Amino acid sequence: MLSKNKYRLIIFDLDDTIFDYKCTEVYSLKMACKDFHIPYRYNETYNLYKQANNLVKTKDLTLISDTDYELFRTTRAKLFLNELGYSTIDPLHFTMAQLKYSEKGKLIKCVYKTLKQIHPNIRIVIGTNGSNYPRKNKVANSRIKYLIDAFYSSEDLGVQKPDPRFFKLIISHYKSISKEDVLVIGDNINTDIRGALKANINCCLFNYKKLVLPKLPLKVQVIESFCEIINIIK
Length: 234
Hints:
Blueprint: E1 9-12, H1 21-35, H2 43-58, H3 69-84, H4 91-101, H5 111-118, E2 123-128, H6 135-140, E3 150-153, H7 154-157, H8 164-171, E4 182-186, H9 189-198, E5 202-206, E6 221-223, H10 229-233
Parallel strand pairs: 1-2, 1-4, 2-3, 4-5, 5-6
């Protein structure tokens, strides 16, 4: 427990900040394939899935909006299943199986220990792009659930990062807290960091994957280990 700190509220991104996203993605895909008797060939099968995912994101397949999660997922599943030669499988049923297996995730190293040190002196909330399901379930099924004060998604807020309104709407729920008391921590420069900077909120980039980074504004703090957060908030 920390007695003194710079912040009263920390807004954490979820995937690749709190949970290892790829670990959950690989597991859910592998288990869904098993349910439908589809051979899973490790990198080959996963790479085909990612190709389908990226195609839906980049190609105008109809008018899939950023918030039409079901259409996005089923379109991705349809492309993936067609590529594997399993076009007779209902993409919606395949997607539902994937989501079921995505309800549990693997915490990134030091997350539990660090959040336990922060709590309860600093409010800890999740601020994530995407739908509530299965993300909210992932938190509820984890050992950190009692350390999280609130969960906010773009589905709830009606706006996505990097729109600064995303962060402002979260802060508005805490009447006694000003944006000077807030720290945003996430792994994505384009969503988490850019959004926080636009909202003029202190931010920290969690370079979990140890990527080569572009030049960032001096006010952006960078860490490579989750435990380093303790040094930032003192």
